[in-house]
Design goal:
Radius of gyration: 25 Å
GO cellular component, one term: cytosol
Largest sheet: 4 strands, mixed
CATH superfamily of the largest domain: Chloramphenicol acetyltransferase-like domain
Distance between the termini: 17 Å
Number of domains: 2
CATH topology of the largest domain: Chloramphenicol Acetyltransferase
Order of helices and strands: HHHHHEHEEEHEEH
Keywords: Phosphopantetheine, Phosphoprotein
Helix content: 25-40%
Shape: elongated
Cofactor: pantetheine 4'-phosphate
Protein name: Carrier domain-containing protein
Number of helices: 8
Structural class: alpha+beta
Oligomer: single chain
Organism: Mycobacterium simiae (Mycobacterium habana)
Number of strands: 6
Strand order of the largest sheet: 1-6-5-4
């Protein structure tokens, strides 16, 4: 079908570009082990650089978190960029011993009325002041060709919504204070419609994208499947900006596709 079967691809092989030098201290050995764990490598030497081994901005965050847990030392992300090898980072730690770690983040009981973030409060105020509109809608339209299993798509949508609470949250008000209420996943339906005779598909998509959310009673995600024929569909996902931003739509679509093909 022209798609790449990622599961069938061979695992990338690690090729060393610098001579291996064994860790010379317990601290270097621990750091080498953390580098290897975070980057999923079989072996890391003292002169191996974190980013030369394939590290990036996301994995460096994991490395810093692991160091905090294993060594009880707070290492700024900048330090890993400035001292990227095992030996250099060990020297950095030797020079910064005694730096207090931040208290671990602990899960707190969820209040009955969840407060809004600053950004959510701003959008909630505009929603109340201006009334429901499409101004803060973020739409994504996907053209689907071929046989479509609507039941599987509906189940995939429920799976994605179950994993992202922001997509199934409504925003109420009590005693003049706005709050969030998280609903069950099944509260976000897949709306299935047929394209009206003579109506261009683009017009139907634009109408779906212009939906007016009522945030107090309606979840900030709307999913509409427009059937042009048995093998031609358009899936229109519309998210209110109070729940996501434009950068969230591609990961959302990928999550939905993964759940559909699972």
């Amino acid at each position: 079908n022209g798609k790449v079967d990622r599961k069938a691809l061979p695992a990338p092989e690690f090729t060393r570009t610098t001579p291996y030098r064994a860790p010379r201290s317990q601290r270097e050995a621990l750091l080498a082990g953390l580098f290897a764990d975070v980057l999923d490598l079989p072996q890391v030497g003292s002169d191996d650089g974190f980013f030369d081994l394939g590290g990036h901005s996301l994995t460096v965050t994991r490395l810093v978190a692991r160091i905090r847990v294993e060594l009880g030392v707070e290492v700024p992300i900048r330090a890993v960029f400035e001292a990227p090898t095992v030996a250099q980072l060990a020297d950095w730690l030797d020079a910064h011993d005694g730096r207090a770690t931040r208290a671990a983040l602990l899960a707190q009981p969820r209040p009955a009325r969840i407060p809004l973030s600053w950004a959510q409060s701003r959008l909630w105020f505009l929603h109340r002041y201006e009334g429901p509109s499409a101004t803060y809608n973020i739409p994504l339209a996907l053209r689907l060709r071929g046989s479509l299993d609507v039941a599987a798509l509906r189940a995939a949508l429920a799976d994605v919504v179950a994993r992202h609470e922001s997509l199934r949250t409504i925003f109420g008000e009590a005693d003049g204070v706005a709050h969030q209420q998280i609903l069950p996943a099944e509260t976000v339906p897949l709306i299935v419609t047929e394209l009206a005779d003579g109506m261009p598909l683009t017009e139907a998509v634009n109408q779906a994208a212009a939906h007016h959310f009522e945030l107090a009673t309606e979840t900030p995600l709307r999913a509409q499947l427009i059937a042009e024929s048995q093998t031609e569909h358009a899936l229109v996902l519309v998210v209110h900006h109070i729940a996501a931003d434009g950068a969230s739509l591609a990961p959302l679509a990928n999550d939905l596709a993964t759940a559909y093909t699972a």
